[in-house]
Amino acid sequence: MTIGRPRWDQIQGGASYGTVAYSTGTNVTRGNLGLPYNVSTIVNQNKSSLKGAEVNWQHMFDNGFGFRANYTYVKSDLTYNNAGVGPQFALIGLSNSANLVGIYEDNKLSVRLAYNWRGQFLSTVAENNRANPGYVEPYGQVDLSVGYNVNENLSLSLEAINLTDEHQRQHGRTDMQVLSVTTGGPRYMLGARYKF
């Protein structure tokens, strides 16, 4: 028997045994799976629109200095209603963001000092299988990368992430409902590369 794309017509699951139906055109075949199971699937919901704009600007001066700037703006009505209690149609991960990078480069030295920022965004619409939102609050950090060419064969590098020791917070329906606070501290990495 050839089974086409499955259609979950009848499912009784959880900790009990159940029956599942497969659709093969107009015929439906039913059979006992003989095992406890849970089934979850993605279902298309409502439709909506998402609008945005991005601006980039990069410039290098004659003396080796330069900068790069970026701003991304997004707008949508796919937001979460914090007063609602049931499942909602909301888009997670949607936020504005910006980057500003100072640059210096010559034959020996390369330096980049960057500030990266992201606005608040919805990170989840369910917590413990209940309709509870989670938001990541606005976050910005400063990073530094330095490269130095000792000679044609040897180059050294330093990378420093989160120089200002920023922490990241997540909250629920209000900013008073703190879900988590994460701090990783500054991180430093040294590297060396030698070409034979």
Can you put this structure into words, describing what you see?
By secondary structure, the chain is an all-beta fold. It has two domains: 1-41, no CATH class; 46-194, no CATH class. The protein is 0% helix and 51% strand. A seven-stranded antiparallel beta sheet has the order 3-4-5-6-9-10-13, with no helix packed on it. The chain has a four-stranded antiparallel beta sheet with strand order 7-8-11-12, with no helix packed on it. The protein has a two-stranded antiparallel sheet with strand order 1-2. It is elongated, with a radius of gyration of 26 Å. The N and C termini lie far apart (63 Å). The relative contact order is 0.11. Residues 1-29 have low confidence and may be disordered. This is TonB-dependent receptor. Residues 25-163 form the TonB-dependent receptor-like beta-barrel domain.
